[in-house]
């Protein structure tokens, strides 16, 4: 009942977006740390290829990658504007995924309760 | 990383304006750097803004530097003065740079206003059908 | 300037008898319900596809998904309501003494 493609994909997305929020918070906290490289969370490409290939979505996990943007003089390469706006974007995506799961579960409630 | 359209584009714009702000503040901070006539004066930095290569937003295409000749000023008391008493100063106009500072700040704020509006619009879309 | 005299009042033409109210309007509402039931599967599949796109980050317009998801909820609620009414009606009939 909970294993259809849409619910699994939404659960993977929620995990990935929560991981991304954490990475962004970490990057913003370290914006002045010398030598710190920004961390990015990647899960969308893995999810898309799993969907296209028809493989099980339970194996898709968010992955951390280090940003290769050029660094400033102190060795730090965190771009504050990009991190702040990416925070806004991730928050909106998270809300959308939650609403999507909520609406699916509400439909199941309706059908069961009659 | 895919970003909701308007927010991603505004993010590239904000980065360009911030880079411009950094360049202008560097110019203004070094406006009175004296060097000897045998060396180069501090060169004013200009940022080249161009459309982003993937078509979404803007990017910094590079930086250009102003003239290294600067202005020659007669200051025999300056320890860097040459035999004839001349010192080289950068050829940077404070008025122009202050105007550009205001333009860069306004541009940065305008991009952030775009993000605000886009975020409100997306949140209204997410609330669709909620009152059922 | 000469003012023209007031003419005689023209006779009133009889009003055409109104046609009876279109009886199909009752059937139109029935069509709405029937269509709602038929399209339930299609609407839910559409909403699911858009949900997968939203999860994978390829959805460019969140409003599109929200509209599809609201349509799917409404279609589900409609189907459940009709099922309940049908079951109630069946029970009523079964309760009738022979």
Report on this structure:
The complex is a heterotrimer of chains A (114), B (132) and C (98). In chain A, 61% of the residues lie in helices and 7% in strands. Chain A has a two-stranded antiparallel ribbon. Chain A has three helices and two strands, in the order αβαβα. In chain A, helix 1 (5-29) runs antiparallel to helix 3 (80-113). Chain A is elongated, with a radius of gyration of 18 Å. The longest helix of chain A has 34 residues, at 80-113. The model of chain A has no long low-confidence stretch (mean pLDDT 90). Chain A is mainly alpha-helical and 114 residues long. Chain A has helices at 5-29, 44-53, 80-113, and strands at residues 39-42, 63-66. Chain B is α+β, with helices and mostly antiparallel strands. In chain B, 44% of the residues lie in helices and 17% in strands. Chain B has a two-stranded antiparallel sheet. A two-stranded antiparallel sheet of chain B has the order 3-4. In chain B, helix 1 (5-29) packs antiparallel against helix 2. Chain B is elongated, with a radius of gyration of 22 Å. Chain C has 98 residues and is mostly helical. Chain C has three helices and no strands. Chain C has helices spanning 24-38, 40-56, 62-95. Chain C starts with 23 loop residues before the first helix and ends with a helix. Chains A and B meet through helix 3 of A and helix 1 and helix 2 of B.
Give me some keywords for this one:
heterotrimer; B: 132 residues; alpha+beta; two-stranded antiparallel ribbon; two-stranded antiparallel sheet; 2 helices; 4 strands; elongated; C: 98 residues; mainly alpha; 3 helices; flat
Could you give the topology of this structure?
The complex is a heterotrimer of chains A (114), B (132) and C (98).
Chain A: H1 5-29, E1 39-42, H2 44-53, E2 63-66, H3 80-113
Antiparallel strand pairs in A: 1-2
Helix pairs in contact in A: 1-3
Chain B: H1 5-29, E1 45-51, E2 58-65, E3 71-74, E4 86-89, H2 94-126
Antiparallel strand pairs in B: 1-2, 3-4
Chain C: H1 24-38, H2 40-56, H3 62-95
Brief summary:
The complex is a heterotrimer of chains A (114), B (132) and C (98). Chain A is mainly alpha-helical and 114 residues long.
Indicate the radius of gyration of chain A in whole angstroms: 18 Å
By oligomeric state, this entry counts as heterotrimer
Query: What's the rounded overall pLDDT mean of chain A?
Result: 90
Percent of residues in β-strands of chain B: 15-25%
Structural class of chain A: mainly alpha
